[in-house]
Every structure is written in C-alpha cells, then in structure tokens.
C-alpha cells in the first residue's frame, strides 16, 4: 500500500530541499506547500500549489494527507517548534525523513518530523526527539540522546552518551566530549569544542569553547542577535 501524500509547511529553501529528498529518496510524493495565511505571496512554489493554512486543512485534510514542517532555525528553533505543534494539534501525522545514504542501526529511536540528511554516522543506542534536523555528515556517538526541535549543521561530532536538550543549535564542526549534558536553548557556535556540561541558555564559542552562562549579558546579546529573538 502506497504511503499518503505529503503537504510541506514552508515556502523557502528548506521546504524545496525537503520536497527533493522526500521524493527522490524517501518514496513520498508532495502534493502542496502551505504557510500561515498572512505569508502567502504566490499561488505556487516549486511548481506545486502554495495554499494558506486555513485552506490547506480543507483541501488536504489530516485524515488523507501527512505533513512535514520544513523551516529554518530562526528564533532558536522556536518557530519550528510552534509550527510543529500547530500541525500536530490540527491532527496531521508529521513525516520524518532519513536519507538512505546515511548509516544507522535498528535500535535508533526517533520522534515525528525529523529530517536527517546524507552521510550521518549514527551509532547504536541513539535517540532523537521530535523535529530534530541533522544536516549532512554528522557523527552521533553511541547512547546519545538529542532533544526535541534541535538543529545540527554539518560535520558535528557528538561523542558517546551525551544528553542534548531541546531547541539547541550546533554550528558546523562543533565537537562534544563524551558523557556531556547540554541544557535546553543552547547555542554552540561553529568550531566550538565542548568539554564540560552546558547550562540551559548557554552560548559556547571557540576551541576550547568560551562559554557564557544564561545570565551573561554578552552571551545573551550573541544569542539574541544570531537568532533574531528580539525582533
């Protein structure tokens, strides 16, 4: 029995890429794109209908279509989280994509709406929460857990038995020592090397990383500016 067609939430680069990967490698056909009503600026996107959210629920109802939320990490993944919840509360099943060109094991567990691209090395005992995005070429060490709505860029190394919280962002080439605990809402910048636990809301820069705690004014400014949290 063929899987149900998808509606993709989003109308920018990541949404276009999600369609490509789902159709070229995931065995799923995309029927349309949708965004919130106020953000509809055209009738189509990437050659498919672009419909307002209120219309999408009628034209592509959750009893006949699945959905995938394909948005960026802006607002430190809070928009991705909000739209994930919006779609799930409307009754949609949120499809995950795992690239066939990655390596994993049968005991991998994951939530809904994950997006995992090529050349991952995912070792035994790994768990991904809901709405986790892993861009290309990461190493996720054995027994590690990645929390809901977290975003990994490329070529990140997570050593074994790490615990990573919700809504975190990890930049290209970041590295984590084994057995670390990373709190929620952390920003680990490109090339940062993490050798100790991070509190919720921390910012980590450099090698070895300079860490600013959640109440540090400089760290708060860096995080807010990068993710446009004050807009």
User: CATH superfamily name of the largest domain?
Assistant: Hexapeptide repeat proteins
Largest β-sheet summary: 8 strands, mixed
The end-to-end span amounts to 46 Å
Q: What form results from the Cα inertia axes?
A: globular
Radius of gyration: 18 Å
What value does the average pLDDT take? 96
CATH architectural label of the largest domain: 3 Solenoid
What is the H/E string?
EHEEEHEHEEEEEEEEEEEEEEEEEH
Protein name: Acetyltransferase
Family: Belongs to the transferase hexapeptide repeat family.
InterPro entries: AcTrfase_PglD-like (IPR020019), Hexapep (IPR001451), Trans_hexapeptide_repeat (IPR050179), Trimer_LpxA-like_sf (IPR011004)
Task: Describe the structure in your own words.
This protein folds into two domains: 6-70; 97-227, Hexapeptide repeat proteins (UDP N-Acetylglucosamine Acyltransferase, domain 1, 3 Solenoid), CATH 2.160.10. It has four helices and 22 strands. It has helices at 13-24, 53-59, 78-89, 217-227, and strands at 6-9, 30-35, 44-45, 48-52, 66-69, 97-98, 115-116, 121-122, 127-128, 133-134, 139-140, 145-146, 151-152, 157-158, 163-164, 169-170, 175-176, 181-182, 187-188, 193-194, 203-205, 210-212. Strands 6-7-10-13-16-19-21-22 form an eight-stranded mixed sheet, with helices on one face. A five-stranded mixed sheet has the order 3-4-2-1-5. A five-stranded parallel sheet has the order 8-11-14-17-20, with no helix packed on it. It is globular, with a radius of gyration of 18 Å.
């Amino acid at each position: 029995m063929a899987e149900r067609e998808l509606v993709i939430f989003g109308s920018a680069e990541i949404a276009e890429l999600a369609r490509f990967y789902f159709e070229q490698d995931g065995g799923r056909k995309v029927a349309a794109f949708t965004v919130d009503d106020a953000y509809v600026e055209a009738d189509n996107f990437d050659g498919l209908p672009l419909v307002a959210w209120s219309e999408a629920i009628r034209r592509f109802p959750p009893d006949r279509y699945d959905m995938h939320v394909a948005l960026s990490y802006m607002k430190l993944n809070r928009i991705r989280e909000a739209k994930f919840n919006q779609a799930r509360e409307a009754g949609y099943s949120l499809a995950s994509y795992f690239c066939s060109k990655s390596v994993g094991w049968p005991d991998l567990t994951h939530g809904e709406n994950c997006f995992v691209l090529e050349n991952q090395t995912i070792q035994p005992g790994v768990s991904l929460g809901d709405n986790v995005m892993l861009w290309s070429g990461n190493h996720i060490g054995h027994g590690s857990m990645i929390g809901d709505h977290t975003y990994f860029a490329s070529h990140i190394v997570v050593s074994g038995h790490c615990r990573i919280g919700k809504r975190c962002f990890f930049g290209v080439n970041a590295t984590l020592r084994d057995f670390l605990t990373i709190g929620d809402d952390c920003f680990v910048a490109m090339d940062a090397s993490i050798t100790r636990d991070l509190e919720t809301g921390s910012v980590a820069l450099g090698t070895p990383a300079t860490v600013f705690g959640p109440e540090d004014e400089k760290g708060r400014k860096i995080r807010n500016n990068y993710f446009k949290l004050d807009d």
